[in-house]
Amino acid sequence: MKVLAIDTSTVAASAALIQDGSLCCEYFLNDGKKHSEKIISIIDYVIKSCGLEAKDIDVFSCSIGPGSFTGLRVGASAIKGIAQALGKPITGIPTLEVLAYNLRGFKGLICPIIDAQREMVYSTLFRFEGDTLLKIKDFSAIVIDDLICRLGPYDDDIAFLGDGVFLYQNKIKNSLKNARFADVGNILPRASSVASLAIIKYKEGHLLWYNDLRLDYIRKSQAEVEYEKNHIVTIVNMKAEEIDEVVEIEGLSFNNPWSYESFDFEINKNNLSRYIVAKTDGRIAGYAGTWLVFDEMHVTNIAVHPDYRNRGIGNKLVEEIINIARESGLKRITLEVRNSNNQAICLYEKNGFKAEGFRKKYYADTGEDAIIMWKEL
């Protein structure tokens, strides 16, 4: 098996290729320059150095965060693009795991720290049991002084690595007598560790397709925080005068959209229906429709305007219909989703829905099957 992996989560960029369990080539560049200018050339060099072509790679992998917001996006875009073109599977490896794996064989605790700015770091704790890397604490963004305080009671040696060491090594050393620090060759994430962890994922059957890969920043960027402050989303019951805006979103979202008359019936005549809309910037950004029948809620449709997608509005709508179902004393929620709509499936699974069956050729426009999903309350 051949695995090509990259890391672009910090100031360094690297690519590595493991072939049949052996590291064939690793290229590590820490020159502080833009990864977007380098990573494709690095990938090409690594593959060709092993006498291979991109089509020969079985699995592609990259680190998925936390780390540099821009760097992570550059790396993920590169891997997803190559995997899509070749029809190959991918895996995503958390950057903190990548760092910890640099120190495989270390007998104590491993504490990777990645700079999160404002005196904060992304961090967790790991330990090796044999060859298995175990996570002891959940990933978090934490003030460095608080992290040091939490580590105080531990008696084991604690190895620190990651770009946070460059900022806080002296503080850590002066506060924790059992602190140890990785050598210069292992202090930053390495693509060879990404590749090694990708092989473990492969053996466990945890492979993805290019459009399923998600980055994990742990917390939002400052730009996103400021944006949300200025673009508050409110969820309210849908009104009859809002049907035109909802019909527009429906038409932009589905091949076989509901008509104005259908929504008019739902809002004005169907006593079983409950429709909500998400508003922001003075506009309707999305909507969700449901039927409340006996002790069940059936989700009829959910859509977000193309201008407002990838901002968490769909998730807010799903969370609100779950709240409505609970407040109404219902026992379960059900819905149908196209079996090709991976983004929607992931959204529902994130909110506790599970696939329980299929409806063959349910969608008239394409003849596509529907996945039936349920959530017990």
Q: Unreliable runs, pLDDT <50, ≥5 residues?
A: none
What is the succession of H and E elements?
A: EEEHEHEHEEEEEHEHEHHEHHEEEHEHEE
User: CATH superfamily of the largest domain, called what?
Assistant: Gcn5-related N-acetyltransferase (GNAT)
Distance between the termini: 44 Å
Structural domains: how many: 3
Model description:
This protein is of the alpha+beta class. The protein folds into three domains: 124 residues, Nucleotidyltransferase, domain 5 (2-Layer Sandwich); 79 residues, Nucleotidyltransferase, domain 5 (2-Layer Sandwich); 146 residues, Aminopeptidase (3-Layer(aba) Sandwich), CATH 3.40.630.30. The protein is built from eleven helices and 19 strands. Helix 3 crosses helix 6. The radius of gyration is 24 Å and the shape is globular.
Secondary structure elements and pairings:
Elements: E1 2-7, E2 13-19, E3 22-29, H1 39-49, E4 59-63, H2 69-86, E5 90-93, H3 95-101, E6 109-117, E7 120-123, E8 126-129, E9 132-135, E10 140-143, H4 144-151, E11 158-161, H5 164-175, E12 179-181, H6 191-203, H7 222-230, E13 234-237, H8 243-253, H9 260-268, E14 273-280, E15 283-293, E16 296-304, H10 313-327, E17 332-338, H11 342-350, E18 354-363, E19 368-376
Parallel strand pairs: 1-4, 4-5, 6-11, 11-12, 16-17
Antiparallel strand pairs: 1-2, 2-3, 6-7, 6-8, 7-10, 8-9, 13-14, 14-15, 15-16, 17-19, 18-19
